Amino acid sequence: MQSINRFNARGFTLQALVAAAYSLTPRAISGGPAWTDSDLFDILASTPGDVQPNLDEQMAMLRRLLTDRFQLAFHREPKQLPVFALTVAKGGPKLKPSTAPPSQLPYLINTVYPEEKGGVHILLPARNATMMQFVAMLQRGVLDRAVVDQTGLSGRYDFDLEWTPDENQFGGNLPRSVESTKPSLFAAMQEQLGLRLEATKGLIEALVIDRVERPSEN
User: Fold this and answer.
1) Can you point out the beta strands (E) in the chain?
2) pTM greater than 0.85
3) Which of 29-33, 135-139, 156-160, 213-217 has the lowest mean pLDDT?
4) Pick from 182, 198, 207: which is nearest to 78 by CA?
C-alpha cells in the first residue's frame, strides 16, 4: 500500500501475483501458458473506504482482480513437494510478544542492504506478526519451496531477523556476498529467533491454472 487507498505492484509475473494472492510458493503453481512466468505486469489500484486494508484484505482484493482482469480459473490438487518445516529450536523460542494493539496492521518487509565487499544482506523487522504470517511471507517471496508451520506458537510477536541470502532465495535475483557479514538464514533463525528450518517433503495443496487470459492494455 502506497497510502490508505493506493495499492501498487510493479514488475511482477502473473505467477508471482497468484503466489502472493493465494499465499503459495511459486513452485506450487503449474499450468497456464509460458507468458504467465515471463511477462511482467504493473498494478495500480484504488481501495475503498477511509481505513487502509490489512494484508488479508489486500490479498482478497488481488484475488478478485486476477479473476476479473486475467479471467483466472484454477483447481487445487494435492502434490508431494519439497518443503521447509518451521519448528522451535532446542532451547525454545526467542520471540517477544508484540506490544502493539491488536488493531495495528502486521509489518513484515524485507529490506536489502549492500555489503562493502559486494553482495547484500537482508533485514526483516517483523511487528505484530503471527507465525502463520511469517511462514506465508517466507514461502511467497524468500524461499524456493513451501513452508509448513510446526512451531505451535499462536501469539503475535515483534522480532528482527538479519541474514545473508543464498542463490536459492529471492528467486536467485540478489548478488551473492563475497565475505558474508551476517549468518545464513538457517543459522540466523536459530541464533536470533530460536526457530529452526528443516528441509523435508510434505503434501501441499498445489494450484493448477485451468484458464487465463492476457488482459487488454485499455
Assistant:
1) 6-12, 29-31, 41-46, 73-88, 96-97, 107-108, 111-114, 120-129, 146-149, 157-163, 195-211
2) no
3) 213-217
4) 207
